[in-house]
Amino acid sequence: MPVPYRRSKMFRRSRVMRGSWSVWKPRIVFWIGAVAIGVVSVGFAMAADRAQHLFQAINASHPYAFLAPLLLTPAGFALCAWMAFSWFPNSQGSGIPQAIAARHLQDEASRSVLLSLKIAAGKILLTIIGLFCGASIGREGPTVQVGAAIMLASGRIGGMAQARGLILAGSAAGIAAAFNTPLAGVVFAIEEMSRTFESRSNGLVLMAVILSGLAALGLVGSYTYFGETTVGATSSLDWMMVLACGLAGGALGACFSAGALSVARRVRRWAQPAPVRRSVALAAGCGLAVALIGILSGGATFGTGYEQSRAILEGQAPGAFFFLEKFATTFLSMASGIPGGIFAPSLTVGVSLGGSLAELVGGNIALGAILGMAGYFAGVVQAPMTAFVIIIEMTGNHEAVIPIMAASMLGYVTSRLIAPEPLYHGLSRAFLAQVLRLQRSEQRGGH
C-alpha cells in the first residue's frame, strides 16, 4: 500500500501544479505584453525623433535644400498611402479609431482585421517614414493601436477571454508610455476609449499602465514631456485668458474635428471607383500642400512641433499666424490618410494659439500656452478630463490646476455645441462598418 499511496500523492501534487500553471500563465503573458508595450513605445519614440532630425538635417544641409520638401514630402505621403493600402490595410490615420472599433466587435477574426502584430509593425514603420518626410503627425495615437494589438496578441497566447478589457489596457499603456503620463493613460481609457467606467477592466488597465510605465522608466528614466513649468493664474487678466483660451481653443478644435469627419466621409465616397490610385493621388497632393506651407513657415510646421511648443511654454512669443499654419498642415496630414496621430501636433496648435492670445492682450505667454493647449486639445478630442490630466503631467504644473481644468471644460463645452460628434468615435464607425461589410460578404460567399 505505501507505494500506491505515494504515487497517488504525487499525482495529486502534479495536478495542482498543472492547475497553478493554468492560472498563472495568462497573468505572466499579460505582464510580458505590458512590459513589451513600454519597450516598443520607447523604441518607437527614439526612431520617430531620429526621423524628424534627419529631415531637419536635410533641409539645413545646403542653401537651397529648403526646396527638398517639394519632392520628398509628396513622394513620402504617396509611398505611405500606397503601403498602407497594399501591405498594411487599416493602419491609416491615428489608430485610436481602430482600437475603439475593435472593442465593439465580437469575434477574434474580426478584431484581428483592425488590431494585429502585422498592422502594429506597419503602423510604426509608416509613421516613422511620414515624420522623415515632414508630415505634421505624432506617434502617440499610433502607439495606442500598437499597444492594443500587442495586448490582444498577449491575451490570445495566454488564453485570456477579456478582449475588450485587453484592448482598453493596451491603449492606456500605450498613451502612458508614449507621454510618460500614467494617470492620463488611465483617464484616457475610461473617458475616451470606453466612454464608461468598467469595473472588470480597471485592474487590467492599472496593471498594464504600471508595467509599461516601469519598462519605459527603466529605459529612459523619469522625465516630464515638456519640462517643468510653474506659472499660475494670479490676476484678473490671467483669468480672462482662461476664458479666451477655453472658448477660442474649443471653437478651433471643433472646426478641426467637424472638418476631419466631413472630409473623411467625402474622401471615402470619392475614392470608391479606384481606392488605391485615388488615395495615393490625394496623399501626394496633401503632401505638396504641407511642403509649401512648411517652406513658407521656415520649416516650423514640419513634424510634431515639439521644439516650437517647448519654446513657447518657456515664454518665447510664437509667430502671429503659426497656429493657423500648424492647424492647416495637421489637417492636411490627417486628410491624406497616411498613418500618424494628431496628439502632439494638436498640442502644438493649442500652445501657439494660447501664446498668440496672451501676446495680443499683454499676458503671460507661458500661461497662455498651457491654457490654449488645454482648450484646444479638449475641443479636438472632446475628452476634458484626459486633456487637463495629460497637460498637468506633461508640464509638471501644479500651480495652475484649476485654470487648466476650467480651460479644458470651456473647450469641451464649446466644441460640443459646435460639433456634437466626437472625432475618434466618429472615425471609428467607418472602420466598424468596413469590418461588418467584410463579414457579410464572407458569409454570402460561404453559402
Would you kindly provide a written description of the structure presented here, covering whatever features stand out?
The protein has 447 residues and is mainly alpha-helical. The chain is built from 18 helices and no strands. The chain has helices spanning 2-60, 69-86, 96-102, 108-114, 117-132, 140-158, 163-179, 182-194, 199-220, 236-271, 275-296, 306-313, 322-335, 343-361, 365-381, 384-395, 401-418, 423-446. It is globular, with a radius of gyration of 23 Å.
List keywords for this structure.
0% strand, Clc chloride channel, mainly alpha, 2 domains, 447 residues, 18 helices, 78% helix
Q: Measure the end-to-end span.
A: 62 Å
Q: Helical content, roughly?
A: over 70%
- Number of domain modules: 2
**CATH topology value of the largest domain:** Clc chloride channel
Total E-strand runs = 0
CATH architecture of the largest domain: Orthogonal Bundle
